User: Fold this.
Amino acid sequence: MRVLNLSLLVAFFSAAACSAPVEPKQVVNKESQLCVTEKGTSDKILIAAHLLLPSSILNDGALVIDATGKISDLGKLAQLQSHYQNATKVICKNSIVSPGFVNAHEHPSYSYAFPDKDLAPIYVHRDEWRGKIGSKERLTIPKPSKNKAVLAWVELRHLLGGTTVMAGSGAVPGLLKNVAHRNSPGNVYKAEMKTFPFTPNASQFLSRYSCPGGNTELPAPSTSTSYSGIPYVPHVGEGTNCVARLETEAFLDHIEGAEGARRTYSAIHVVGATKKQIKRLAENDVSLIWSPRSNLALYGETANIPEFLAHGGILALGTDWSSSGSYNMVEEIACAKQVAQTFGEQSLSARDFWEVATRNGAIALGVQNSTGSIQKGLSADLVIVRASFSSHYRSVIEATPDDVIAVFVEGKPKIAAYGVGQQFDDCVEFAAIGKYVCLDIEAFEVGLQDMIKKNKRNVPLYGTRRQASCVVS
Assistant:
C-alpha cells in the first residue's frame, strides 16, 4: 500500500467531507468486512464470491485475473484455489461479483454542475432550453471543463457508483475506461459520439421539412468517413415535437441506406419517436440508449420503451449529465425502475435492469467482445458488492455506497473497502467515504489539494443533493 504525503491526505479527507457530503452518511465497521485478502507472490489475482455470468449465477465461484487485466479463468473456488496458490486472493463471503456498469451516455466535461434552479419539464425540444428557439426559459449550460481535477472528480463519482466504462467526451487516464472518438489517453474504446448530428440548431436546419417526413428525402445526420469503422452513437430525437421526429426519421433513413460494411448503430434519447419509428429502430438492430431522468426533467416524458422491447430491441442506459440527469448509474436505474412500473406486461425484472446496465451498454457501444460481462478473455472490469437481498441482481442494481466492497478496472482495484485496499499498491484510506481509493494521483497530474479546491461547489462524490427529480406522470 502506497503512502502519500500525510498533510495532503488530511486536507483531502477533511475538505471532501465538508464540501462533498456523503448523503446519506455511511458508517463502515472495519471488523465486519466480508472479504479476507491475502497478498500473493505471483502477478495473478483470484477473486471469490457469487459470480453473475452472462446467462447464469455461479455460486461460491471464483475468477482469476492475469497480468494483462483480463479474466483468464473461471470456476468453483474449491477447484481454482489449489491451482493458484501464489495469487493475491480476495475471498468474499455473502458477496457478489458483477460486471461493472457501462454508462453509455454521459458528458463528463459538463457533469460537475448542479441543475439550473429553473429546470422544469416544459420543453418540446432541446433547442428551446438551449435558447435557440422560442421564448421559454433558457437554462444555464455549464462551461465544458478541461481541468483534470474536475474531470477526475466526475469520474471518481461514477466509479464510486459502480461504473467501469463510460461514454462521453472529457476523459482522464487511470480511472474509468472512457469511450469517445477523440484520440486521448483516457479514451480506451472508440465510438463516434455525436451530440449535434443535425447541427447545434436542428429546428432551423430542418425547418423546411414537414412532419413526419413522409416520402420527402431528409438530410442525413453528420458523420465522418474517418470514423466509418467505429460505432455511430448520435443524440437523436431529443424532444417531443415534429423536429424531434424528423431527426429520428432522417437517422433511420440514413442507416437503412448505408452502403458498405455495417457499423454498430445506437440512438440516444428518441423521446418523441412514433411507434413506427421505434419498430424500425429495433428491426435495424439499433440499440436505444435511455436516459429517463433527464428526459422526464426536461420534457416530461421519455421514449416508448415497452414498444421497443416488444420488437426485441436492445436497451442500454446512460446518466446524460448532472444538469438534468442522474449523478450515477444506481440513481439512473432507480429512475428507470419507477418508469418501468407503468409498463404493464413489458415490465422489467431486476435481472433485466442488470443486463441493461452492463452487457447491453457494451453492445450499444460495440465493446461487448472486450468488456461488459464476466467471461474468459474479457477485461476484468468488475464490481464486488454485499449480497443485501435474496436476488443477487437486485443487490447489484440497488447497491448503496456501504454495499460496494471493491471496483476493479482492467484488473486493478480503484475503490476498495477496508480489508481489501491494504493489499494493493496505490491504495490510500479515504476516511470521508470509508473506503480505500486506489489511484496514482501524480500519474495524471492532479494533486489532492487541487482536486478539493476545484470541486468545493460541484456535485459531491456521494449523495443526491439537488439531483434532478424523476417524476413519472
Remarks:
- The first helix runs from residue 6 to 19.
- The first strand starts at residue 35 and ends at 38.
- The two ends are 50 Å apart (CA to CA).
